[in-house]
Amino acid sequence: MLYSHFRYFYCSWLSCNRKSSFFDFYFFNIAEKFPALSSTISNKPLLLMRGNQILEENLKHARIEKSQLIAKLREANVSRLNQIQAVVLESTGDISVLHKSKDTDEQSVDSIILEGVREKL
């Protein structure tokens, strides 16, 4: 299980295909023996938008184009930017769009929902 965990993050980090190779086998064996290495290569969730503000530096770091972000907002049925509380690039590579609640006036996200999400680089 640990091998597959490292393999996923390593492949997404390098944007490689999932073909096995000697290098993969060697790298993951080293990563299992040195836990500090796993923290270096792990992808923690990254905040891409806070409210209606697009965090350009985070987009650049994540290598996501603004047009890709806008397409994801359309998929999430966002018609106006003021409907957004936050947009997060998950460690899996998925983009999560957190909408503002229509039921309450309170527009903050519970802290547990954004726990572990990097806001600034």
Explain what the structure shows.
Helices cover 40% and strands 15% of the residues. The longest helix is centred in the N-terminal third of the chain and has 13 residues. A 4-stranded antiparallel sheet has the order 2-1-3-4. It starts with a helix and ends in a 22-residue tail after the last strand. The chain has 5 helices and 4 strands, in the order H-H-H-E-E-H-H-E-E. Helix 1 packs across helix 2 and helix 2 crosses helix 3. The N terminus is likely disordered. It has 121 residues and is of the alpha+beta class. It has 2 domains: 40 residues, no CATH class; 78 residues, CRO Repressor.
List keywords for this structure.
2 domains; CRO Repressor; 4 strands; disordered N terminus; alpha+beta; 5 helices; 121 residues
Describe what is shown at a glance.
This protein has 121 residues and is α+β, with helices and mostly antiparallel strands. The chain is 40% helix and 15% strand.
